[in-house]
Amino acid sequence: MSSSTSTAHAVSPDSGRHWTEPGAWRVADGIHRIPLPLPMDGLRAVNVYVIETERGLTLVDGGWAIDEARTLLEKSLGELGFAFTDITRFLVTHVHRDHYTLASVLGAEVGAHVSLGLGDKPTLDLLHAADEVSEDPTLLVLRSAGAHRIAEEWQRFTDGRLPDLGMWGYPDTWLEGDHTLEVGTRTLDAVHTPGHTQGHFVFAERAAGLLFAGDHVLPTITPSIGFEPVPVEQPLRDFMGSLAKVRALPDLTLLPAHGPVAPSSHARVDQLLAHHEVRLELCRDALAGGAATAYDVAGELPWTRHEHRLADLDSFNGALAAMETKAHLELLVARGQATREETDGVVVFSAPSD
């Protein structure tokens, strides 16, 4: 599901250029967007937002702890007349490496306070105990989805790889529940939005009409669902419930982690909810042909705005597709629109019997 303009071609109104163009782009008085590079073929950048206060800078998200991102962040802050030592706080929307790791590293270096959602603590706990974990939990999810070939490829890629814990320090503060935060003279609503990850938060500044949306609401793509090291029972139900929470806020200018600044949080939330209802219907239709695993159903669905088939996706995106389809099927079960049966760790879904 995407908007009419693809992420690859989207121009951001704050810069008048492609949204990944380096710089410190003003989105409001005292707030700038700094796109930082990502070492991946799909998403090319992550937006870090700089909020100026009389006591220093608060950054919403930090970027991926790679040299290219660190160098560009330093240069872009310099364009505003600031340095790393002016950063006093990081508000991290969620624990994924492209948001958290540079915040964790710089926070430790300059003494900046780092906040992260409590729901992401199990992920950090798992990373810190990686040398004691016999098997990546993602493999269990892939096998339960019937994606055995992808699970084998995933295992070959991850075997023996331990995280660099220097990039994965624990935050100074865990964010828990919906509450307000004072950022200089600004008041932000910290809104817990589980789904993309269990600890995801968005930050709304109602007075300025802004939503720092992280990966919860993206303007041109849909966030991945069901991809967490510590699996949860109903990630799609959580995500759609969180979208409803954001829809209940005023209509705000969307400041996303990936993609251009967009004018209406309500419009995009409505599109995302409609998209997932369509996907749920497609999953129901696929089950009409008989019992199937999530991987089987994923093979019947189109993927990306180009409507690729599952067989055309690389292993990583194939894994995301299998896990996201499983999340849709599990929600159909919760709604009473499908049944599930597990045998030898593999879940098979069926249309409900009349």
TrEMBL record:
The organism of origin for this protein: Nocardioides koreensis
What Pfam families does this protein map onto?
Lactamase_B
Q: Name the domain of life.
A: Bacteria
Extent of the signal sequence: none
This chain belongs to the protein called: MBL fold metallo-hydrolase
* Metallo-beta-lactamase domain residues: 45-258
